[in-house]
Amino acid sequence: MLPAPPVSETLIVAEVVEPEVTIVSQHPDSIVGEYHVDFAAMDTNDDGVIDAAEASSNPTLTAEFKAVDTDRDGKLSKAELKGWTR
Ligand SMILES: [Ca+2]
Ligand SMILES: [Ca+2]
Predict the structure, then answer these.
(1) Which is a Pfam family this sequence falls into (predicted)?
(2) Which numbered ligand comes closest to the C-alpha of 76?
């Protein structure tokens, strides 16, 4: 049996110690998510739009927020979420 090289193990551990939160702004004009959102449930303050804070409860929507927010006003209207809502 070969002696296990401890070096490689150390390297692997070092790489996974800090998981990076990667929210990449990729493909800003494409919506790749395949899921539906419950608009009324997400609009917790009931103002008719989903803001970033409300969208934060949905990681996928947060990732796609800019792509969904077609008029770039920082909020998602029902029209913008058309096709995403049930
Ligand atoms: Ca709202
Ligand atoms: Ca908008």
Answers:
(1) EF-hand_5
(2) 2
